[in-house]
Amino acid sequence: MEHMSTWEALLLGVLVVLVLFWMGPGVKVMLERSRQAETRDWRGFLWPIVLVVLFVFLLIKMV
Length: 63
Prior knowledge:
By secondary structure, the chain is mainly alpha-helical. Helix content is 86%, strand content 0%. The two termini are 35 Å apart.
């Protein structure tokens, strides 16, 4: 695989910085809301993840 040329690396760096500035306000609001979250909110988030992990383990065992 070829290495990126200088202009490609610069363009990629500028793109990353622009995406960070674009998403910055949303991340700030998300962090504010996560501080106010209650434990039942986290339980509702974790249950689907646990179920998916168990389902994947079940699929692996079936093979």
